[in-house]
Amino acid sequence: MIKTRFAPSPTGYLHVGGLRTALYNYLYAKKTGGSFVLRIEDTDQSRKVEGAVDNLLSTFNRIGIQFDEGPDQGGENGPYFQSQRLDTYKKYINELIDSGNAYPCFCDTERLKNVRQQRLTDKLNTPYDRHCLSLSRDEAMTRMSTESHIIRLKSPADEDIIFYDIVRDKVSIKSNDLDDQVILKTDGFPTYHLANVVDDHLMGISHVIRGEEWLSSTPKHVLLYRFLGWSPPKFAHLPLLLNPDKSKLSKRQGDVAVEDFLDKGFLAETMLNFVALLGWNPGNDKEIFSLKNLEKEFSIKRIQKSGAVFDQDKLNWMNSLYLKNESLENICKKVESVFTSENFDISDNDKFRSAVDYARKRVNTLNELPDEVRMFYFDLKFNNEDGEILSLKTSFSVCQFWLKELDTQSSWNADDLKSLLKRTIEETGVKGKDLYSPLRLALYGSVHGPDMPTLFNLLDLETIKLRLKTSLEFHTG
Ligand code: GLU
Questions:
Q1: What confidence tens digit (pLDDT) does each residue in 161-197 have?
Q2: Would the pTM of this model clear 0.85, i.e. be above it?
Q3: Is the minimum distance from the CB of 41 to ligand 1 under 6 angstroms?
Q4: 7 ligand 1 Cβ < 6 A
């Protein structure tokens, strides 16, 4: 049975790279009929951020990814928390000490710092000199009950530690290059390596799919599996995410936090689709995938090794496409609060729908929608150049004629508009740019803008008359 997991440390927000890791794990589990779990790796108490887990869960909720299992805490499908599993880790740490694969270390920080410095100068690969490994077992045990200490794993000498990675194939590391890693800290919490391996094993994780930055930790994990007598899961390390200039993707929250993209008006569907293609492709040029499609088409074998460029222009393009194709109902629902927060009166639902439908074809994000239709909701503002156009005699006669014609109307349709335009040309002799520019300016606030039927669709007759009246005030002659 395939089982994958997403195992973030709760250090703040969900990074786009984290979303990609979670998504690939989710997709692989779905594709194979397996399950996907969330495990919060909170054993580093110094890096803990208040509210980070709630924030993570709410971001996954917004994005539409669900986890399959979890213990009682945190709701039905709530996550596992490593900080609640300390006794389990202690048990395996003791086992490692008993089997001679781990040992206590009593060196204080001052000594460790000096040793590290000296070994660096001596060009030695590992920062620790194994000082405490030479203590007799009895001495080590006695001191453990009274002195502050950490526990280290004993790396074997002179061997190649080999494992297979689905993305990178064979990976080999010299054991002499591995430091005797810490597995238990002085605060009684295990380190990432120990807790991660114990949990992956006990939770029956079959595939560990994670970012490339964890590749160097994997030999240490492979050792832990061996010392504990367990067979390791399969590993797949995902390519780095890069800026367009090929540097490592920024860590600044505003540029990479999934919640910020959602807040800026990128759709969850877009984010999933976009992120899915950062390191995977279907083998053809298809680029638009719903989550359901991805569940079918994703293949772990097609994950690339080379870095994946995060292209903001492509994200914008993709979101604009989703905005055009998404159901109008959904877009309206999603964007309602953006409009009301900017004081739009959207009580006329037909008008709101038409406005959103008009604007969504012109923008990249939901948040840009209000600006596209502001002129249908608020009084127009004119600059000097606009004033000059409206003060022209031709402009005046067109607007005046329209006002006179519309005054007697109480309703309006597209045919009426056609015939009004025809009559305007006949009666005033004004046509072409001289006809359309002042009308657009008067009704919409700019000479460039939607066509007349759209304008009439979005503005009620009263507003049209009022705006025509205002435009006449520019004429002084
Ligand atoms: N806790 C690690 C992280 O923050 C998990 C890495 C892994 O998946 O093993 O990403």
A1: 999 999 999 999 999 999 999 999 999 999 999 999 9
A2: yes
A3: yes
A4: yes
